[in-house]
């Protein structure tokens, strides 16, 4: 006897429903698979015997009550959907609230429980730097960019910013408008404290001996404005020299 996959599925559903009927007759409260199979089987039978779609839905809603299933089942099975063969073809039947209305609970399965959160401690070791954008265009710096290596036309204390990033939410950025001064807070880079890429001033561990001194010298050599560098002077003269380059 050759059966299609759909026919095999229907027989499997019938077998599960028969097990559910036997257990219900014995007074056993049904679990999720048993209750689902029984409801779906009854719906398919209505369709197969010539019933209408609305008849199948009504039957599915009357098969079981909340008293015949385990206490959590009505909260887990909020609807039962089964493809049923009617006289005019196959249609999906969705039985909503198959055990009747369910009272909402804060601890119902699937509910989102908000845990008590400890107070958020402020991040330690923050520093504030004044940043002047000497460029003629807006410069944006993202949250976790190594601020020491930020755009060369930003005039600020490079030494203070070494090993730090903006203290802003991850994925956001700060805009520095042309010719304006912006005060920003910087937080230390944590974890392994290795930076690779960015402007190429470090490209490795931040705290290895000599790395800071080399990075500062490289920044000055490559024309990164630095408010601590005597050769830069004030932001206006530093900007003028940067344009001349």
TrEMBL record:
Which pathway does the database say it acts in? Answer: Nitrogen metabolism; urea degradation; CO(2) and NH(3) from urea (urease route): step 1/1
The molecular function terms in GO held by this entry are: nickel cation binding; urease activity
GO BP terms:
urea catabolic process
EC class name: hydrolase
Q: Name one Pfam family in it.
A: Urease_beta
Q: Which reaction does this enzyme catalyse, per its entry?
A: urea + 2 H2O + H(+) = hydrogencarbonate + 2 NH4(+)
Q: Gene3D superfamilies, from UniProt?
A: Urease, beta subunit, Urease, gamma-like subunit
Q: What is its EC number?
A: 3.5.1.5
Keywords, comma-separated and alphabetical: Hydrolase
Q: Could you give one GO CC term from the UniProt record?
A: urease complex
Instruction: Please report the name of this protein according to its UniProt entry.
Output: urease
**Source organism per UniProt:** Kribbella sandramycini
């Amino acid at each position: 006897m050759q059966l299609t996959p759909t026919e095999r599925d229907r027989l499997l559903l019938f077998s599960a429903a028969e097990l559910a009927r036997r257990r219900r007759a014995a007074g056993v409260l049904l679990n999720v698979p048993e209750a689902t199979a029984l409801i779906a089987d009854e719906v398919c039978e209505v369709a197969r015997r010539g019933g209408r779609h609305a008849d199948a839905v009504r039957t599915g809603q009357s098969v079981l009550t909340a008293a015949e299933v385990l206490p959590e089942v009505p909260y887990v099975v909020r609807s039962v959907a089964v493809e049923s063969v009617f006289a005019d073809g196959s249609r999906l039947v969705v039985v909503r609230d198959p055990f009747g209305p369910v009272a909402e609970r804060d601890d119902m399965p699937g509910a989102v429980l908000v845990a008590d959160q400890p107070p958020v401690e402020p991040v330690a070791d923050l520093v504030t730097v004044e940043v002047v954008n000497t460029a003629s265009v807006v410069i944006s710096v993202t949250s976790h960019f190594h601020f020491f290596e930020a755009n060369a036309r930003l005039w600020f204390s490079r030494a203070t910013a070494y090993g730090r990033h903006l203290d802003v939410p991850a994925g956001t950025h700060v805009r520095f408008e042309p010719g304006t001064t912006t005060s920003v807070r910087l937080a230390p880079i944590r974890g392994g404290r290795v930076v690779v890429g960015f402007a190429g001033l470090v490209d490795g561990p931040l705290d290895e001996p000599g790395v800071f001194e080399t990075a500062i010298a490289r920044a000055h050599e490559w024309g990164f404005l630095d408010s601590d560098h005597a050769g830069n002077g004030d932001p206006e003269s530093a900007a003028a020299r940067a344009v001349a380059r």
